[in-house]
């Protein structure tokens, strides 16, 4: 059975790139344009979430907090995919419950290596 990964980003081109990278590797992908959209689409089994940090309506950190507060998704790996690489922002992400951090622009094989590691 293929694993399902949700990608959350307000940039359609980034979503598309993440989506294509993951689909080519055999993952099922759910796309969301911001945190609110992601929460609305979180219903069935989701094995991993890849989220941007800076988004309208609900940012990545708020999304992580909301996901971590939901029993069903409490332990789902969440990767921040963002242009932010400041230590303080990373700390905030970690404190909220982020599993890992990938800085944009990302390399497709980097993303797949992380997915593979977290989803075995």
How would you describe this protein?
The protein has a single domain (4-118), classed as Response regulator (Rossmann fold), CATH 3.40.50. The chain is 42% helix and 19% strand. With 120 residues, it is α/β, with parallel strands linked by helices. Strand 3 (48-51), helix 3 and strand 4 (78-82) form a beta-alpha-beta unit. The chain contains 5 helices and 5 strands; from the N terminus they run E-H-E-H-E-H-E-H-E-H. Helix 1 crosses helix 5 (108-118) and helix 2 (35-41) packs parallel to helix 3 (60-68). The model has no long low-confidence stretch (mean pLDDT 95). The protein is globular. Strands 2-1-3-4-5 form a 5-stranded parallel sheet, with helices on both faces.
Question: Any key phrases for this structure?
Answer:
single chain, 120 residues, alpha/beta, Rossmann fold, globular, Sig_transdc_resp-reg_receiver, phosphoprotein, Bact_response_regulator, CheY-like_superfamily
